[in-house]
Amino acid sequence: MRIGRNPVRWHIVLLTLWTAVWFVVAERHSAISWHYLRTGQQLLFGQASGGGLALYANHPDLQIGPVSFLVAGLFAPFPLDVGEKLADAFMSGLGLYMLVLIGRAAADHNRGTGLNHKRLQQRVLIAGAAFIPMWVEVSVRFAHLDDVLALFFTTLAVRALVRGQATATGVFLALAIDSKPWAVGFLPLLLALPRPVRLRSAAWAFGLVAVAWLPFYLTHLDTLQAARFTIPNQPASSLRWFGVNDPATPSWDRPAQMALGIALGAVAVRRDRWPAVVFLAADARILLDPSVYTYYNASVLLGTLIWDSIGQRRLVPWVSWIALISLYGSALVIPSDATRGLIRMAFCVGAAAYVLFWPQRAPRGGRGRRARRADDPGAEDPAQGWAAQARH
């Protein structure tokens, strides 16, 4: 079956229906946090006092990147209810597109290794079925456009990395950070690039981050206080199991989250397991976060989706389903805060150890893109693309 020139992928059709089911369920109590985006875009564009470049200095509670406010502005001309519904639909659609991108990235990464494409589609279907409930949680129920955009741009960065587009990798990572600052943890993806182009890709990433954020800091030094904004340390947080009983976010917590995520990602790249970078950064975030909102799990499920689709070749993507059951299932059925915190900590530590150190079977023909040119001379070789970029 085809639509125009494009064949219909039945696993995507099934995932679309699965998304529609969860959309209908979540839409009854949707857009819990959309007012933050609406307020922020009004402040950024000077439609309310205390905004403009003073936005973060005067409103440190808006822990949202400027790119997210720009995109939120696209829905501002509509009546409030209509704008919310359109934003919900838009963000849900991005999740489905991300599934397509990850499937294509997995196919490209493993080209020339004897990959069974039907099995890959089944793997994406099963992992995607775990991903969708958490994606609808962040995109529809909570309407966190900032988290949605950070994860979407990160997915584009993964796709660009696999295709050998070093500049695009840096640009998309910058847009992710400019949408939500915690996306800094995904920067180790740059280390997966070949050395000749790594520096230029990093320059694009850091340069675009500076362009987006420095105007706020240079014009209003009080913006630095936004980095110290705190939230309550909830009883179900894993921090309690580390003996952290502060009533609010400890001063060291946010830097520790980013440092741990970056360190784990660097180890993953060093061990030739770069598809684990997104998962490990999200893992570090929820392990050390004082809050336990269910929408946080969307970043973890994106990470497991990338790992299960690109980083391993088992038919059953059990890491994704263990993540869903451990993080979301426990929140629904376990009443004890302490027990939920223990399960969260056990999952984070155990899953990180697994993806970093469990022995991996090398695919036939070599590792992914390094085998492409030998097995498929007519295919575009990402390494060749990187070399060509390095010469310019």
TrEMBL record:
It comes from the Bacteria. Keywords: Membrane, Transmembrane, Transmembrane helix. Residues 364-392 are annotated as: Disordered. The keyword Cell membrane does not apply. The chain crosses the membrane at residues 89-107, 119-136, 199-218, 315-335, 341-359. The keyword Membrane applies. This is DUF2029 domain-containing protein.
